[in-house]
């Protein structure tokens, strides 16, 4: 079967339209999960209705946008080096390949450098400890003395969540709440 150009275009259009819908759905589910985690941490047993008691939607959207912009900004040096490496690969394959590899390492390092801060920003806003524009500075103040322990805790909580997902997603029903409480 030979796919037509119109069919391929329709498929790509459908995919591009679904990304914002999926992103919004994931955002809403994450907010509800964090709401339940905060209830648990505050010593209250979360009931079904408590997950939906969120009153800072605009601030949370702003917090997630700031977190995303910070994450992208931390990766800019890696992307610049990647483009340089790809341009260099036409002249020297070895040098271009080395630059691309180095750019991947820069992308990972940039992501790791801001991960503890960007993860805390939405939590601080949701908990009411900071306004959207105050949250990055407060997150930095909370993390700066204990960066490696915060990063290690995040990685461990992420590993717990990943193990649940590896168990055919059924395990995630048990590990995702543990992960959310650990993050909160």
Q: How would you describe this protein?
A:
By secondary structure, the chain is mostly helical. It is 78% helix and 0% strand. It has helices spanning 5-41, 57-88, 93-126, 135-143, 147-166, 172-183. The protein starts with a helix and ends with a helix. The relative contact order is 0.10.
Strand content: under 5%
Rg from C-alpha positions? 20 Å
Provide the helix percentage: over 70%
Total count of helical runs of at least 4 residues? 6
Biggest β-sheet: count, sense, barrel? Answer: none
Q: SSE order, as H and E? A: HHHHHH
- The overall average pLDDT, rounded, is 85
Q: Which spans have pLDDT < 50 for at least 5 consecutive residues?
A: none
Our measurement of the CA-to-CA distance between the termini, rounded to an integer number of angstroms, reads: 51 Å
Q: Structural class of the secondary elements? A: mainly alpha
Number of E-type strands = 0
Anisotropy-based shape: globular
Secondary-structure blueprint of this entry?
Layout: H1 5-41, H2 57-88, H3 93-126, H4 135-143, H5 147-166, H6 172-183
Helix pairs in contact: 1-6, 2-3, 3-4, 5-6
Features:
0% strand, mainly alpha
What's a concise summary of this model?
The protein has helices spanning 5-41, 57-88, 93-126, 135-143, 147-166, 172-183. Helix 2 (57-88) runs antiparallel to helix 3 and helix 5 (147-166) runs antiparallel to helix 6 (172-183). The protein is built from 6 helices and no strands.
